[in-house]
Amino acid sequence: MRLVLSGVLFALLATRSVLAQVNPLFAPFDCRKHTESFDVIAPSPFAVEISDFEDSVRFMDDVAEIEEVGDNWKEWAYVENFAFGKDRGAMTMITDLNALHPYFRDQISTLIRNCKAKGIEIAVVETYRTHAKQHEYKTMGKGYTNSGAGKSKHQYGLAVDVVPIIKGVPVWNNTSLWRKVGMQGERLGLRWGGRWRRPYDPGHFEWTGGVATGSLHAGIFPEVPDALKRYPCLDDDLELLKKSWAAWETEQSSLTRK
Q1: Domain boundaries, the chain
Q2: Please, what CATH class does the domain formed by 2-255 belong to?
Q3: How much of the chain exceeds pLDDT 90, in percent?
Q4: Which alpha helices (DSSP H) does the chain contain, by range?
Q5: Is the pTM of this model over 0.85?
Q6: CA–CA distance, 84 with 123 (Å, rounded to integer)
Q7: What is d(CA 167, CA 11) in angstroms, rounded to the nearest whole number?
Q8: Is 87 helix (H, G, I), strand (E, B) or coil?
Q9: pLDDT tens digit string along 137-158?
Q10: Cα–Cα dist 197/128, whole Å
């Protein structure tokens, strides 16, 4: 009986998550609408200790200006470990598409819609990832990531992890299904982790527009097609995003020192 109830609960949560991801919010980005967000899963305490984390985290220059962001970053949707049936570490995973670069966010929204049109339900597992969370994955072994803190596209809002959902259950090991999802992402110009060998990461999509990680770290973001028309306030939007990212960085990195 407990297994049945757990399955029903997961199905309801997954359905709500997918519906949120295809919200009309993801029409071409409306400048300065920063307060809209998805349904939020209530916060719960973090619990992790990483003794050697101090040297691996580099904070953004505008951390001191976090208060200007308000509490919008706290409204981002997130989930805890095993929410999608896999061990992904003790730290919270941000699942909110609002945490992504505006152009990439809209591409992922399109990916979700296109997959749905093909009869494939997609759930977002993780969007923006803090340096602390990236370091946690690094300590969990190469089966999780080869990239240390600051070296993943997740740290720049340009990567996302997803998983197909069948009858309310995340499906991680269906190669044929992953190929269908990967094909949809590649048609949008996204880089698909299903092409990688070590680690093979079919749930991962990213976009950098040809900009290297070092340039991203220096604050150089890729050029967006037709940016003036589609994203007239892109620079301001990215500045606000960076401050929200910095707020999450402070929140999660502080937990590693407890």
Answers
A1: 2-255
A2: alpha beta
A3: 63
A4: 2-21, 102-117, 131-139, 175-187, 213-217, 227-230, 234-255
A5: no
A6: 9
A7: 7
A8: coil
A9: 988 987 777 777 868 999 999 9
A10: 23
Res. 59: pLDDT tops 70: no
CB-based contact 121:164 (threshold 8 Å): yes
CA–CA gap between residue 153 and residue 196 (Å, rounded): 15
Residues paired with 237 in a beta bridge: none
Instruction: Name the 3-class secondary structure at 90.
Output: coil
What is d(CA 224, CA 153) in angstroms, rounded to the nearest whole number? 16
Which range is least confidently modeled, 18-27, 88-97, 104-113, 174-183? 18-27
Cα 148 to Cα 137: distance, rounded to the nearest angstrom: 8
Return the closest-CA partner of residue 113 out of 26, 235, 192.
26
Q: Please return the burial class of 38, using the count of CB atoms within 10 Å of its CB with bins 0-12, 13-18 and 19+.
A: buried
> C-alpha distances in angstroms, 82 versus 32, 46, 241?
34, 14, 27
Torsion, Cα of 103, 77, 176, 24 (10° steps): -50
Give the mean model confidence (pLDDT) for residues 103-114: 98
Give the whole-angstrom CA distance, residue 147 versus residue 177: 26
Take residue 214 and report the two structure tokens written for it: 């070092």
Angle between helices 131-139 and 234-255 (to 10 degrees): 50
Cα–Cα distance measured from residue 184 to residue 133, given in angstroms and rounded to the nearest whole number: 28
Distances (CA, A) of 12 to 16, 25, 41, 95, 101: 6, 21, 13, 16, 28
**Which range (60-74, 75-89, 184-198) has the least confidence?**
60-74
